[in-house]
């Protein structure tokens, strides 16, 4: 069999061999995809809910609380807020580490993750939980003596085992007689808050002074959000009709990730159909394809 095959034929001028599917970026006068599933801070749209979460977490650090928590349904912007916080706190006053929890993360895994983010090499023979805690504790005290506060941002906390949650409580308890020496900011789906309400987590839960729940966008916010992201990507004129924006809210439930998905599928379809605007039908068709 000839695996190489004949040379590809040269397309006839004027006839596009494949429709430039999804090339909505150039077609709609954009510089980039406005609805990419990324957490690029330039695309951050300030809602009361997101601003409140950001402010509360900065207050938790500024007031030297040991714990703060942001919960919310999946896709509402928790990771994006955590990225904004990561950028916000600066050295030398703060040292921020970010830990992304994966399913099955063990106690030692969590501690090793934090130590490695702090560039701390593990001396040979150090493997037990209490040794790792001691190493971290000594380092936090040293940082404190040098005027630096450790901020640990933990994302996807709903995946933490109860053992790991107890390790977080232990870390949050590292203190001098005057103050707690680090702040852990916990980000997780709403079920994390339900879980921590159980009496077995009372000693952890009691230490969380600042907590907030991110809410889905309202219909008006969805419209502003879409316009803002389009503008950030370079499109100044309206692209979605008003009824399309209402349909976007209806199908996404105001969840940012779903808004992005439906909006992007609508743009791809509109580009294929050579439609200059996104109307309600395009949005409904896109939502059904999700
Ligand atoms: N306030 C916001 N402004 C701009 N984009 C947002 C906002 N909130 C969420 N998004 C976007 O929605 C998507 C999901 O956000 P993400 O932070 O990953 O949600 P979560 O961590 O809650 O699951 C990402 O593409 C993110 O950029
Ligand atoms: Mg996330």
Summarize the structure.
It is built from 12 helices and 5 strands. It is an alpha/beta fold.
Provide structural commentary.
The chain has 290 residues and is an alpha/beta fold. The chain has 2 domains: 85 residues, Helicase, Ruva Protein, domain 3; 166 residues, Rossmann fold (3-Layer(aba) Sandwich), CATH 3.40.50.300. 45% of the residues lie in helices and 11% in strands. It starts with 23 loop residues before the first helix and ends with a helix. Magnesium ion binds next to helix 3. The site of adenosine-5'-diphosphate has 19 residues, from helix 3 and helix 11.
Keyword list:
single chain, 290 residues, alpha/beta, Helicase, Ruva Protein, domain 3, Rossmann fold, 2 domains, five-stranded parallel beta sheet, 12 helices, binds magnesium ion
Rounded to the nearest angstrom, the distance between the terminal CA atoms is 40 Å
Number of helices: 12
The CATH level-2 architecture of the largest domain is identified as 3-Layer(aba) Sandwich
Any idea what the radius of gyration is? 24 Å
CATH fold topology of the largest domain: Rossmann fold
Number of domains: 2
Beta strand count: 5
Written as H for each helix and E for each strand, in order along the chain, the element string is HHEHEHHEHEHHEHHHH
């Amino acid at each position: 069999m000839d695996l190489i095959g004949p040379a590809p034929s040269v397309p006839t001028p004027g006839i596009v061999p494949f429709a430039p599917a999804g090339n909505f970026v150039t077609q709609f006068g954009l510089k980039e995809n406005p609805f990419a599933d990324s957490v690029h801070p330039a695309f951050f749209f300030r809602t009361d809910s997101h601003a409140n979460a950001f402010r509360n977490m900065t207050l938790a650090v500024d007031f030297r609380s040991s714990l703060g928590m942001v919960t919310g349904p999946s896709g509402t912007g928790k990771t994006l807020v955590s990225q904004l916080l990561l950028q916000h706190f600066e050295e030398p006053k703060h040292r921020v580490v970010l830990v992304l929890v994966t399913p099955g993360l063990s106690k030692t895994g969590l501690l090793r993750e934090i130590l490695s983010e702090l560039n701390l090499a593990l001396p040979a023979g150090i493997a037990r939980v209490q040794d790792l805690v001691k190493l971290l504790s000594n380092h936090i005290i040293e940082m404190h003596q040098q005027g630096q506060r450790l901020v640990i941002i933990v994302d996807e906390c709903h995946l933490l085992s109860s053992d790991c949650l107890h390790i977080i409580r232990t870390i949050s308890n590292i203190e001098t007689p005057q103050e707690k020496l680090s702040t852990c900011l916990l980000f997780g789906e709403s079920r994390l808050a339900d879980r921590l309400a159980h009496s077995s987590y009372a000693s952890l839960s009691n230490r969380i002074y600042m907590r907030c729940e991110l809410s889905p966008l309202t219909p008006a916010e969805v419209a502003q959000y879409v316009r803002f992201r389009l503008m950030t990507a370079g499109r100044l004129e309206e692209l979605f009709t008003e009824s399309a924006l209402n349909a976007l809210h209806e199908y996404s439930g105001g969840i940012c990730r779903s808004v992005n998905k439906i909006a992007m599928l609508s743009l791809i379809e509109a580009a294929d159909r050579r439609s200059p605007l996104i109307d309600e039908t395009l949005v409904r068709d896109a939502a059904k394809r999700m």
